Amino acid sequence: MASMRLLAIIAILVQGLVNGDSHELPSFDPELAVAKVWEVAEGKVGPDVKVFNVVDFGAKPDGTTISTINFIRAFKEACNHNGRAMLVIPEGNFLLGSMLLSGPCTFQPPLMVQFNGNLLPQGSTSTAENADWITFMNFNGLFISGKGTINGLGEKEAWKAVCDGCRRKAANLKLIKLNDVLISGITSVNAKGFHMMISVCNNFVITNVNISAPDESPNTDGIHMSKTNKVRISNSTIGTGDDCVSMIHGTTNVTVENVKCGPGHGFSIGSLGHYDAEFDVFGITVRNCSLAYTENGARIKTYRNESPSKASGIIFQDLTMDHVKNPILIDQEYATIPGSVDSKVLISDVEFSNIRGTTISKIAVVLACSQSFPCKGITLKDIHLEYTGDPDHNEDTPFSSNCTNVKVNYIGEQLPPPCA
């Protein structure tokens, strides 16, 4: 039965890719997808799959021998194979520098990656800036599954080099210009920068991943995406020093569900309005998730800048907050600088529904919208948050909400009380 599911998925993917319709790529059945990636993790892929084991290409699982070129050679052989292919990263510790694993490829999609080893960076600072660490780019069909770990060792040097204007530090895993991607089971630890960075992609399923870094680690977003369509993130644990999931310009049709977030900065849409000619954001749903001891809960943030765009069709639903500082937040004054203008990002059709738990803030709901482009269609439904901060702190300040440049549609229970 498992092999039949595997063949069915591959047939659907191949049919969609052969048809060449880049605008209507096939949708994954999540249950089949999860079954498929675990088959990859266990190596149950059938006799017609050619295996490309990085050890056979000279990679050493000893944690001291640099194996970058060996990984690249194994990938290139798999990429150029004219049939079904699986790249195998076995158990052991592999020392790697920055590497680009790029197509176009000739394999019969998807490329399967059985990932059970531990990846360590070559040197503590070699990938600190200017280059991402492990990048998959420019092909269709990628299934990564296993119990492997990507350890960026950001605590060694990268996190110490914090400064204004510094370039973004290396992502553990960068996925760019890819279609039809499944990632399951893997762990990402202590990235120098983002843990997973997704850009210009279509059709993603990320499930059962574990992402962790200390709460003081700078800019270590768990999953960060831009200009990407059709993403589902589920059944995962993410705790970092920044956003658990961040969605910036051009992110569309994303579902995040059953994710445990904390520590970190919560689930964030934005920052938006940062770059010229940004693409709109729409169709974002975050539901059935929990947040514990995070800076923010459900957040939309935009720069005060001249760049216009729109963010719409956003749902935050069935979220549990545990000692969250800013459980519900729209911030259109993010990173205000002298001489800046009102945000030109129009936020509309946003629903916060069944948000419950505790907060350490006396002002638990903040909706600070743009004066020039006020928020439209904002709904708060069944909100129940209780203050659990220092009882002696601001004891004369009521538990409340703060709203500017927005008219809110209130439905059901509202704690804290609605804005006046």
Automatic annotation (TrEMBL):
The gene is LOC107894740. Keywords: Cell wall, Cell wall biogenesis/degradation, Glycosidase, Hydrolase, Secreted, Signal. Belongs to the glycosyl hydrolase 28 family. It is found in: Secreted, Cell wall. Gene3D superfamilies: Single-stranded right-handed beta-helix, Pectin lyase-like (2.160.20.10). Residues 1-20 form the signal peptide. Its main location: secreted. This is Exopolygalacturonase. It comes from the Eukaryota. It holds the Pfam family Glyco_hydro_28. PANTHER family: PTHR31375.
